[in-house]
């Protein structure tokens, strides 16, 4: 079993047992079910669970959160474990990953809603409605991601995208595209500073209005 880092207790609090159980499920089944790569097993805690959970620093108490493209469960599952006050909806289009997310929720007794669908589909948007916060991790470049996620964000709410080293380059490149779909100027910040050895980079975009409609010719 992959050792549980000491900092995990600080991040997950009363949910540490659930976090450990989730890590054990990923260690046992994640690779064979195509959820994580073989090299990720040794990095489950620092690169995945803790990296995802600290995003909760940017989310106020009691909000509704839609996690787009949850996949193996990131960032939505660790976030829901660390922040049981949140109403978390996990959205995933692939059936096998949807099955996995339901198994996780049942096994570790996690109170989340799991929904199959793609964020860009009108049917999914009608089914899940809007949320205060929409999260994602390694789903798509920022411009495309904003087009998918911002329609799920209530006006005045925000999109939080977990990104890597390319975050600032994406913000510089895609800021105009984000504005066209109703987003504020994207900002880059770090979560878990002073807690994690490598803090989590997050791009934040507030939904300030509806998407601009194309101008009619003539």
TrEMBL record:
Sorted alphabetically, which Pfam families does this protein's record hold? GidB
Q: Where in the cell is it found?
A: Cytoplasm
Which stretch is the leader sequence?
none
Q: Where does S-adenosyl-L-methionine bind?
A: 69, 74, 119-120, 137
**Keywords, sorted A to Z:** Cytoplasm, Methyltransferase, rRNA processing, S-adenosyl-L-methionine, Transferase
Show the GO MF annotations: rRNA (guanine-N7-)-methyltransferase activity
Quote the EC number: 2.1.1.-
Listed GO CC annotations: cytosol
Top-level class of the enzyme under EC nomenclature? transferase
**Domain of life of the organism encoding this protein:** Bacteria
Q: What does this protein do?
A: Specifically methylates the N7 position of a guanine in 16S rRNA.
The record's NCBIfam families line, in alphabetical order, gives:
rsmG_gidB
User: Could you tell me which HAMAP family the record lists for this protein?
Assistant: 16SrRNA_methyltr_G
Which family is this protein grouped under?
Belongs to the methyltransferase superfamily. RNA methyltransferase RsmG family.
Name recorded for this polypeptide? Ribosomal RNA small subunit methyltransferase G
